[in-house]
Structure formats: C-alpha cells, structure tokens
Amino acid sequence: MRTVTREHVLHRLRMATDSGRALLACGAANGLVAAAAEAGGADLIVVYSSGKFRAAGRSSLSALMPYGNANEIVLAMLPEIRTALGDCPVVAALCGTDPTTSLEALVRAAAERGASGVQNFPTIGMFGHEFREDLEATGISFEQEIELLRAARRADLLTCGYVTNEEDAAAMALAGVDVIVPLLGVTRYRNGDDAVADAAARISALADAALAVRDDLLLLFHGGPVAEPSQVQRCLKLVPALHGYIAASSVERTPVARAVSAAARAFVEVRRAAGEHPIAEASPDFSTPPPDLPLELTADTLAEYLAKKGIVAAADNVEVDELSGGLSNVVLRWRSSGQSGVIKQSRPRLRVAEEWRADVRRIVNEYEAISYLAPRVHRGRLPTITFTDPTLLAFGMEEVSADARLWKPELLAGTIHEERAQQAGALLADIHNATRDEPTLRRRFLAEPLLTQNRLDPWYRAAARCHPDLAASFEYAISRLLEVKQVLVHGDFVPKNLFLLEGELFVVDFEVTHFGNPGYDVATFVNHMMLKGFALPEHRQAFGRLASTMWESYRNLWDGDQAVVQQEALVQLGALMLARVDGKSKVEYLAGTEHAAEARDFGRWLLRNRPASVGEVLTRYAGHL
User: How far is the first Cα of the chain from the last one, in angstroms, to the nearest whole number?
Assistant: First the structure.
C-alpha cells in the first residue's frame, strides 16, 4: 500500500501553516469518519486504539486498560481507513513500550498498511507520577516511546510526540521529532473560560521547553478542557507558537452522536406528523386583546361540558374535584363510568394577592408544547393529551396515576433523595437537547409578550421596585431572557410540577413554555432548592446538594456549551430569588417568616457580585447559616 513520504507530509503541513491556517489532525476509527474528516479539511488522520472504544460508545481511557492489544487494534484499522481516504496522510498511534515486538517491525507493519506517520499512544505520560515512576523502574519507559519515533524517522515517516511535562517535551525535541503535541488528558466538555486559560498556560510551558531545544518544530495540542472550536481558537490566540489542534472525541464521537440523535428525531417527527395534536405554524397573537371565555369550567359546569363534547354520556354521573396548587389555571379531575381524566383551562386573573392578569391563550402554548415534546423526551414523562378545545381555551389529559407522588411536599417534609435531582437534570437536558436551535419552535413559541405577562412584570419588575438600587441588574437579566433564543424553555421547572411515577419523573405545567434561554430553567430549579433550604435551615446543606446534583446531571448531558448556560443561569439566579421573595408570586413557605430576609440578602448578594460558577454559589449558600 502506497505511503506518502515524511518530506511530502511536512511540505503539506508547512504550506498550510504558511498560509496562516491552523492545522487540524482528526482521530478516526473507521473509513466513514476518516473520509468525512478529510472532506472537512483535516490535514492528518490519526488512528488511535482509543478510537475503537469511542466508536463503541466507551471512554477513550479504555485504551489504557487491559481490554485489548493497542498495536493490534491500530494495525487492523489502518487498511480500512487508508483506502477510504484520498491523499490525506495517516498517522498510526502506536504503543512503543510493547515488549512483544521489535519497534522496527511495528513501524514497518504500520507503513505497509498505509501509515505515513507514527505517534506514541498509549503513552505512560498519561499515568500519575507515582505509577509512572513504578513503570520506569521496571523498564517500561518513556525512552521506549522516543525510540519508537526514532525508528519511524529512520523509516522516513512523520513523527508526532505526545508530551505531558517539560522534561519529556525537551527530550522529544532533542530526538528530532517533527511534531510535538502537549497532551492535556482526556477531553472534557464541562469546564469554562478559566479552565481553558489554565490549559493554555500548560501548553505554553510545554511548548517553550521543546522550542528551547529546536525552533523548527510543529506544535499541535490535544485534550483536556479544550473541546469546542471557540476554545481551540482561544488557545491559539493565547499561545502564538501553536500550529493547530488534534481532535479525537471532538470529531469522531460527539458530533456523530449528535447527528445520529438529530436524524432519529427527524424520523420520529415524520412518524408522528399525522398525530392528533400538531403544533401551529405561529404563536397566538398575544398583542391583540384576549378573547372572553364563552364558558368558565368549574365543578358545576364540567359534567355538561363533557357530555356536549361526547366524552361522557348525558345520563352518566360525573364526579368532579378541583385540584389544588394552581395559581393561574383551573384544573379539574373527573371520573365517570370507568372513565377519568383531567381538564385544564387558563384563568384571566391569577389567584394572588396583587392584581395580576395574563392572556388566557397561553393554554394553547401549553398543550402544543406537550404535543411536541412528548414523543421526543425519553428521560421522563409528560402528560398524555386526550383532546384540545381552542374555542374554550382548554385541554384534556389522562389522569396521573394514584401512585404518582408530588415532589414538593416530600421536600418540605425534609425527605431528600439526590437521585431525584439527578433525574431532574437528565429530564431537563432531554427537553433542551430535543429542541435546541429548532427554527420551527423559534417561530412558534415566542417569548414576548408571554414572558412579560407571566414573569417579567409580575416577578422581575415587581421585585425591582422593592430594590431600586438593583434595577439595572434586573433589566440586564430581562434582556438576556428576551434576546437568547436557543431551546424550548419549560418556564416553571420546579418540584411542584414534578411527580415521581414508577421510578421516573413526570413533568407538568408548560404554560410559560417559550423558545429562549436554557439558563432560565436551570436557575429556576436551583433557586427553588435554595429557597427551601432557607425555609428549612436544618436541611440547607442537603438542598444545596440537590441543586448541585441537578446541575451536574444536566451539564453532563447538555449538548451545548456548559460554560455559556452556566453564566446565563447565574445572571437569572439572583433576580429569581428576589422575585420569589418580593414579587407578586411569593413562595408561600417563606412569606412572612424570618427566613425571607435571609433569602433576600442572599439574592442581593447574587445580583451584586455575579459569582463565577454554580459551585461558588452553593458553597457560599451551604455556609450561610
């Protein structure tokens, strides 16, 4: 099989860097990914034994465990990948410490299968200092990895050296390696700007150590908290000596998983397109006066209504109960002749002490949001809609099983289960991932004026009048809610709307659902955990752990930028806390208690100081006793 010479590969790479373009090397475990990466402009394709595990849905670190022979895995993958490519060079990531073969034979086998370069992986540099010392003491050494690359150089192959400390970087440069690669560990998707800056400082130290020996090196970097193009761009800016980046998980696993999920969701939409409750093309025109309801559903009027709808027979005896807890809707449960259900209708005036009116057409948003999300959410359950009535602005749904337990009363009784918070984070991530950047939803579920009527005026601006010195902070939080349009936001993702049913969370109340800022839902949940901890100080640390667990669960499953959604949540958190203490809808378990002042002080601190992370907030909260 034809192998491109080292001189030719270096010429290609130098031509690219001379043009001002950053180099990109992509990991690929099969021909499909390799060909796609080449079509996308990759300069090198790297074949890692870890790629086999990534393709199987496993951790990249599996390649460092005794699950397979790293060199055999790479040699077996090379022909498929080489034949799928055009002229893009292939680098074989080989284990130089393998005692079962000579390095020359290993390099020759890789070249015969189409490799134009060699990289040292797995590398003992990835092991902790103490374990590495033990390896070195028994003859399993980094020097063997360097000797692997010397053998590759003698075979006229490109050499790429992973390094994890300054001593190794200098040694690789002294050995004549063509490309030095500072390795920051396994790729992580949950660190923010500070972590990227720390990574850049580490890369710079390793690059300086290598360049002090030779100034003709090419420098790429790989792993750690640098996983997105924007983060790579920042590292390249912070470390001008760098020539580019190696992407493995960032190219061959994460984007593939997202694309397959998106394709599956698209086919689910086709299957569900003829469903009973399709969503409208546009939002209700909330700028026009709301209609008068032709009939207000009550315990007295519901039986006749159900009979006219043909849901029950006129002669049937219908038992009706009004369910408690709803401030903004009437929710009626009915039972008759073996049938049952729940009917929901919006109220024009909410049941709070202060005057608060909202457009009754928000109910349309609710049942269309449920219709859209129900087939797409897999980490929890949503109501099953039985009928909709656009004229009466009501809808019916199946009754929740009597076995379902509402989460809020359990929490206020001091019953804490962290797995519920983990489930809540997974469910919220599912909702956000299923709707991220969807143009149909952007057009259909407009934030304005729904949010103004239901959140911004009665919550944020009402609280701002009690805290005029923080008015600018409230208005900034408002602007972020109206400007950021990324996902379908539930709008009230809190324990009073979450039931536990057969081990899953069942979420209700989508009336404020809109296409907007994912940080709002995160902040809403975290805020409610903290508020309950203020009301029950003996359980405050436990409530803080619930907030932390939910956030970690969410961020580990969220497909977007965790740092961005965290910052958006932090913008909202203080405004929400003060809104629920001093706005029109005060949380009942704090209103009029001595603990309300404590929550108020904490909310003011949040808005004034804008902490850097949810972790910082919860650390301060846990100590706020």
Answer: 70
The 10 Å Cβ neighbour count of residue 15 is 11
Render pLDDT for 561-600 as a digit per residue (tens, 0 to 9).
999 999 999 999 999 999 999 998 899 999 989 999 999 9
Say yes or no: 288 and 253 in one domain. Answer: no
Instruction: Give strand pairing partners of 488.
Output: 515
Is 162 in the same domain as 296? no
The one-letter amino acid at 303: A
Q: What share of the chain is helix, strand, coil (3-state, %, to 5)?
A: 50, 15, 35
Give the span between the Cα atoms of 195 and 456, in whole angstroms.
34
CB pairs under 8 A, 24+ apart, for 395-399?
A: 395/343, 395/344, 395/363, 395/366, 395/367, 396/311, 396/341, 396/342, 396/343, 396/344, 397/341, 397/342, 397/344, 397/370, 398/341, 398/342, 399/333, 399/340, 399/341, 399/342
Domain coverage including residue 331:
275-622
Dig out the tokens for 441 from the structure.
Answer: 């939803």
Contact by Cβ (8 Å): 508, 492? no
pTM for this entry: 0.59
Length of the chain equals 625
pLDDT in tens, 457-494: 999 999 999 999 999 999 999 999 999 999 999 999 99
